[in-house]
Task: structure prediction
Amino acid sequence: MSRKYSIGDVARKLNMTTHTIRFYDQKDLVKPESIGENGYRYYGEEQIQRLELINYLRG
Result:
């Protein structure tokens, strides 16, 4: 089982805001791997790599 990261963990790791990650979710660019019963978004390595690519391409 792969590790799941909270949206806050991903934001800190990639130096992005949680608002930006939610925006990408809203625009169907990067969907969370799962959403917990508490409504928290959880991201896996695949989603993190996609966010890194988007960040790189924006630069």
